[in-house]
Amino acid sequence: MWRSVGFLMNFAVVMEGMTLIAFLVVLIGGKQMRERGWKVLSGMLLLAGVIQCAGMSLIAYLYDNDDRFFPGWRLDTSWIFCTISWSVMVLTATFISASAYLVAPEGGYELIPDED
Question: Quick one: which H or E segment has residue 15?
Answer without folding.
Answer: helix 2-28
